[in-house]
Design goal:
Layout lengths: L11 E2 L3 E14 L2 E7 L4 E2 L7 E8 L2 E8 L10 E6 L5 H9 L5 E8 L11 E7 L3 H13 L5 E8 L8 H10 L3 E7 L11 E2 L4 H7 L7 E5 L2 H13 L7 E4 L6 H17 L8 E5 L6 E3 L6 H7 L16 E6 L2 E3 L7 H5 L2 E3 L3 E3 L3 E4 L1
Parallel strand pairs: 1-4, 9-10, 9-13, 10-11, 11-12, 13-14, 15-21
Antiparallel strand pairs: 2-3, 2-8, 3-7, 5-6, 5-8, 15-16, 17-19, 17-21, 18-20
């Protein structure tokens, strides 16, 4: 970043879209977890809602790959933002980031996006529950409340495998030492040789929850982690009569294999049939493209982009990551998204092409 140019009158503000950013710093959090700090070339304020995510657009082994990661920093430190990534066996993108991304490298980033956040779903009393690297969105919320001196009564619970796997341990202990309304609890599933641990041990359970947050029925619960962890949390909460309308969760990672295969099969099918298109169905025009594509009502609009060679990114395929955003200029569509686009963006005419379907002839802009 050109720090000599820091000026509140010339600083830009981040907007949801496609941006090329620089990796400014890499921080080792644990033996297999790194945080990557990104900033713009020119001073930019990275405003986002704590809990939201970005999508990285990368090239790995000569192929374009997109993957979504939650922002782990808070917007109260707005000139950069962090993502925190755990190395995983067989993890294509996470392992590539660990092994290849260096300080100074430039990366294309889409976002921010996501409905799992503490702005749209505010709380006066909160229980932040995480499993493993699922800590990233809830630590962003906790950091935000800490930095703005928010009067949010917070119980923070991090569940990890061993004491060596505690992410952000020192920062969490610092917040706990400075705030009377921040209670920190860490649960270690097991101990390994040489570990010293006096805290909770085993798997998170109902008894632990009642000790940590006796008033849990009065709290908003924000939860993120592996699917089995969140399933267990939901089971525990339902078992104690928790009002589940006050439960919020986030979970995403690599595009599910079945969806990836469907995307690949559809792409091959469209490539084979493009020349033999019978021009039935709804016409989908992209601005600056001479010819339209024709889609049936059950074909997502992204299929038109593939047919016409319009390079609209696509990652999750289910309306979570927000990478495939385009603007609808004309026509009627039906959209079935999963939080990858905001109500404000929808009101401005933006849609997600992976989960939107034509209900008339449509004109799109990308």
């Amino acid at each position: 970043m050109n720090y000599s140019a820091l000026n509140p009158f010339t600083t830009q503000a981040w907007a949801n879209g496609r941006h090329t950013l620089r990796c400014a710093k890499i921080i080792r959090e644990t033996g297999d977890v790194l945080s990557f700090c990104f900033e713009a070339e020119q001073p930019t304020l990275f405003f986002f809602k704590p809990g939201q995510f970005v999508t990285l657009e990368l090239e790995i082994n000569g192929k374009p790959v997109m993957r979504s990661y939650t922002i782990s920093s808070a917007p109260s430190l707005p000139y950069n933002f962090n993502i925190t990534v755990k190395r995983a066996p067989g993890g294509l993108v996470s392992n590539w980031l660990h092994d290849n991304l260096k300080e100074g490298d430039r990366v294309v980033v889409h976002g921010p996006a996501g409905s799992f956040n503490c702005i749209d779903k505010p709380a006066e009393k909160a229980l932040l529950l995480s499993g493993g690297v699922g800590i990233t969105p809830v630590v962003s919320m906790a950091r935000w409340w800490f930095d703005i001196n928010a009067a949010v009564d917070t119980v923070f619970v991090s569940c990890v495998r061993t004491p060596k796997d505690i992410i952000f341990k020192h920062q969490l202990e610092w917040m706990s030492s400075r705030l009377t309304n921040f209670q920190l609890h860490i649960v270690c599933e097991k101990l390994e040789s040489g570990d010293v641990w006096a805290g909770y041990r085993g798997l998170f359970n109902t008894d632990m929850l009642k000790q940590m947050a006796p008033d849990v029925l009065e709290r908003q619960v924000y939860c993120c982690g592996p699917a089995p962890f969140m399933k267990a949390v939901r089971y525990i909460l339902e078992g104690i009569g928790f009002p589940m309308e006050n439960y919020h969760e986030e979970s995403f990672g690599e595009t599910p294999e079945a969806i990836s295969e469907q995307i690949h099969d559809r792409l091959e099918e469209f490539e084979k049939t493009e020349s033999a298109q019978d021009k039935s169905g709804f016409a989908v025009h992209f601005v600056n493209q001479e010819q339209p594509a024709y889609l049936e009502s059950n074909q997502a609009l992204h299929a038109a982009a593939m047919q016409l060679g319009v390079n609209v990114p696509k990652a999750c395929g289910v309306g979570v990551c927000g990478a495939c955003k385009v603007k609808k200029i004309e026509g009627e569509i039906e959209i079935n998204h999963n939080g990858g686009i905001s109500d404000e963006e929808l009101a401005e005419g933006y849609i997600l092409s992976c989960c939107s379907f034509a209900r008339s002839d449509v004109v799109l802009e990308f």
